[in-house]
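User: Show me a protein chain along with its predicted structure.
Assistant: Here is one chain, sequence first, then structure tokens.
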Amino acid sequence: MEKLKIGGDKKCPYYLRRAVFAMRMIGKGAKSLQKFSSYMALPAPVSQKPFDKINDEILRATTVVANSCMKKADEEEELLTGSSDNMVSGDGT
């Protein structure tokens, strides 16, 4: 599996990468992170450009993991069924 370095930039502290990830997990963006930081009297978080950069790194990493998992599932199904004509459904059907 391809190894990706997420947010290895020393200019972007670990807690900011985690904050961007948390906002992404609840479907919010940079403005919501700024608002949350303001409400909690925290220092200003990353601006839009670094937020987008971190978000892109998260997207690349999740894409690699998702593709790897789907490939592994296909290989397992091929072993079980003996057929290489497999389809995957994301809704459980």
